[in-house]
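[Meeting: bench + compute handoff]

Bench side (C.D.) handed over the final construct sequence. Compute side (W.E.) agreed to return the predicted structure before the next meeting so the bench team could plan truncations. Sequence as handed over:
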Amino acid sequence: HVQLVESGGGSVQAGGSLRLSCVVSGYTSCRYDMSWYRQAPGKEREFVSRIVSGSRTSYADSVKGRFTISQDMAKSTVYLQMNMLKPDDTAMYYCKSTCRAGDFFGQGTQVTVS
């Protein structure tokens, strides 16, 4: 069993910043391949960023240079630092764990950029 709890969302003006957090609990082996996804109203869920083994990172083209993913293994927490936010970044943001036990998503945290 894996539980993911996101926090840090909110409402900001364009150009602002937010830092999302995702606390992971459960199987230790399910903390090494972590991702952030987002879903805007009326759209499909899309990939935002991924971190593997605490260091290998990848990003969607739409957020490269603006978002930074990181992980604190000691705190079992994954972060998404979001800078230069745009209205198009408005969405529900979800944390995802990928491991042998399966794929797990949290409940999400809402980000609104006006």
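W.E. noted at the follow-up: Residues 28 and 73 are 10 Å apart (CA to CA). C.D. will use this when planning the next construct.
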